[in-house]
Amino acid sequence: MILTTLSFVVVFFRKIFVGGLATSTTKEGLHQYFENFGEVTDCVLMTDPTTKRSRGFGFVTFRDPATIESVLAKKPHILDGKTIDPKPARGSANDGKVFIGGLAFGTTEEDLKEYFSTYGMVNIEI
C-alpha cells in the first residue's frame, strides 16, 4: 500500500528516531519505555537479520504529535542501561528521498517508478 501524501506527512511529524539503543533492547522494551510519554501507535526496532538483536536504533510513532515535545524535553533517557538519543524523525530537507515501506509482495521497481513519475524524475533504490 502506498501512503497518500497527507497521511505520510501526518505520520512523519508524529515519529521519532531513537539512537544509541543497547543490543539487548527489544521492541517491547522500546514500546513500553515511550508509552510513559504518550500513546504509541507504532514501534520499529531495527534488528540484525542473522542474530535478531538490536542494531542500535529504531523508530517510535505517537498518536499525538505534541508527545514528541515531552520526549525531547526530558533528558537523559536511559533504557537497558544505556543513554539513548531520541530525535524527530526527519530526513534531510535537501536530499529529496522518500522511504516507502509496507509494500505488497511482488511490487516491482517499475511499479514504483510508474506511480511516482507523475511527481517528477524518479530514481528507485531497492
Brief overview, please?
The protein has four helices and five strands; from the N terminus they run αβαββαββα. With 126 residues, it is α+β, with helices and mostly antiparallel strands. It has one domain (8-125): Alpha-Beta Plaits.
Specify the CATH homologous superfamily: RRM (RNA recognition motif) domain
User: What's the main sheet like?
Assistant: 5 strands, antiparallel
Number of helices: 4
Kindly report the CATH topology.
Alpha-Beta Plaits
Low-confidence stretches: 1-11
Q: Architecture, according to CATH?
A: 2-Layer Sandwich
Q: Estimate the mean pLDDT confidence.
A: 83
β-sheet strand percentage:
25-35%
Dominant shape: globular
The counted number of beta strands is: 5
Strand order of the largest sheet: 2-3-1-5-4
How does the helix and strand content classify structurally? alpha+beta
Q: Work out the radius of gyration.
A: 16 Å
CATH class: Alpha Beta
- How many structurally independent domains? 1
Report helical residue fraction.
25-40%
> H/E order of the elements?
HEHEEHEEH
Distance between the termini: 16 Å
